[in-house]
């Protein structure tokens, strides 16, 4: 199968995790000492979530990177699945995320959960790949890391039903970046997509055409939380 860059094979990863168990599960471990290894699955989850709502935070000390993952209260099952997945592998505390309340500018109350991973110096390369001058971008070589699992995470994060197809909220990315993403999705997965306006001053969304919904479902459905299958528009 195609190998994801910066990943170790599963056998070596499991062996190293056993040897370095303390380094993953001890939150007081220094980020310079918490160096990995990272399996393809973990890298895929990080890539997919950062394409979506998550962001990577370079710590003030500048020696490591952590993932900041947030979901609204409506997606609690997905968030708890995400938390369990990374916590069991030593990437965050096992303490269940708490519900937070935020009042937005327009006065609306927003309930959400958030997860912060531990800090890893060995995740700095992903931060460097996704951020330019403090702004999140789509990496030019994203196709190398866009595994079916990464695509599933991205879709669970920001995907929704749209007409007879589906759309992914990509409002923070530039039009040129999304044009390149459409090309890469066609080449790698034979998905026909287009860019649509997200509204006045709201950027763009990536639309997945009806004829590609069956293909998308075959690629990502097995990785999705069952309660989010509805996003596949009955496919």
Q: Key terms for this structure?
A:
235 residues, single chain, alpha+beta, Endonuclease I-creI, four-stranded antiparallel β-sheet, 10 strands, 8 helices
DSSP helix count? Answer: 8
Strand numbers in spatial order across the main sheet = 1-2-4-3
What is the helical fraction, as a range of percent?
25-40%
Write the CATH fold name: Endonuclease I-creI
Per CATH, the superfamily is Homing endonucleases
Protein name: Homing endonuclease LAGLIDADG domain-containing protein
Keywords: Mitochondrion
Domain Homing endonuclease LAGLIDADG: 44-215
Organism: Capillidium heterosporum
Descriptive notes:
This protein has one domain (10-228): Endonuclease I-creI (Roll). It has 235 residues and is of the alpha+beta class. The chain has helices at 10-19, 21-25, 40-51, 76-88, 124-130, 148-158, 175-189, 213-220, and strands at residues 55-58, 65-72, 99-103, 109-116, 131-132, 135-136, 159-162, 165-169, 193-197, 204-208. The strands form 3 sheets. A 4-stranded antiparallel beta sheet has the order 1-2-4-3. The protein has a 4-stranded antiparallel beta sheet with strand order 7-8-10-9. The protein has a two-stranded antiparallel ribbon with strand order 5-6. The two termini are 26 Å apart. It is globular. One of its GO terms (molecular function) is endonuclease activity. Residues 44-215 form the Homing endonuclease LAGLIDADG domain.
